[in-house]
Recover the amino acids of this structure.
């Protein structure tokens, strides 16, 4: 068998084993990432709600001051009513009293709305904190599972990666680049045997002349359709005899 195609077959085998190890991790890495994002998102939500509560408290204090000032002014105008001597003065004081009343009503409505909003926000923050604790527990378990899985496959993975590094150094750069491109484009399968006179990857039929050349095992061929490297299973069987 051609030396380079033999090395490519070994590289494909190593990548298959590494993929199996990575598959053992399943969606744990993504789960950990998602849970972390959820915690950060909810913490940011609580931070914004807490800021709104502080802003509402400032608004409440401002409107309480407005209410207090308006009450003082209204009381003063009401006392002055008894001292007026003309209708014009009476109308002017009555207008000031009405304005103060409106100020008080507007301020009291604003205080009530801010207080109700704060109660809602406090309940929401409380519920979110409980939710965050639950997610933290899920994250803790997911991290634990991920760590255990990584630990159980660490030695094997390091061994395979060392072998892969060694074999890639032996493959000419031209063919290694083709392998990487096809591997990424063809779902991790870049080197395939001929099966039933067709490509073992895409099942495209291989013309007899090309099959004969592949069976001679002295050249490197790729599938005309999917660009995967092709080899004869018979050659592998002969090597193992």
């Amino acid at each position: 068998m051609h030396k380079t195609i033999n090395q490519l077959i070994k590289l494909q085998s190593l990548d298959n084993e590494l993929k199996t190890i990575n598959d053992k991790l399943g969606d744990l890495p993504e789960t950990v990432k998602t849970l972390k994002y959820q915690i950060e998102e909810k913490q940011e939500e609580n931070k914004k709600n807490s800021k709104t509560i502080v802003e509402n408290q400032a608004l409440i204090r401002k409107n309480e001051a407005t209410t207090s000032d308006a009450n003082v002014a209204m009381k003063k105008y009401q006392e002055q009513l008894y001292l007026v001597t003309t209708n014009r003065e009476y109308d002017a004081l009555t207008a000031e009293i009405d304005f103060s009343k409106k100020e008080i009503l507007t301020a009291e409505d604003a205080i009530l709305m801010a207080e109700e909003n704060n109660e809602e926000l406090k309940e929401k923050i409380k519920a979110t904190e409980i939710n965050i604790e639950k997610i933290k527990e899920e994250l803790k378990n997911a991290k634990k599972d991920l760590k255990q899985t990584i630990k159980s496959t660490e030695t094997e993975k390091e061994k395979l990666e060392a072998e892969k590094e060694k074999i890639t150094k032996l493959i000419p750069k031209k063919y290694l680049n083709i392998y990487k491109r096809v591997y990424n484009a063809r779902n991790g399968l870049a080197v395939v045997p001929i099966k039933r006179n067709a490509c073992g990857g895409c099942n495209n039929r291989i013309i007899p002349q090309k099959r004969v050349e592949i069976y001679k095992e002295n050249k490197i061929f790729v599938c005309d359709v999917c660009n995967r490297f092709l080899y004869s299973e018979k050659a592998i069987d002969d090597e193992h005899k």
Observations:
- The first helix runs from residue 3 to 24.
- Helices lie at 3-24, 28-81, 87-170, 173-185, 208-216, 233-240.
- Residues 197 and 207 are 8 Å apart (CA to CA).
- The longest strand covers residues 191-195.
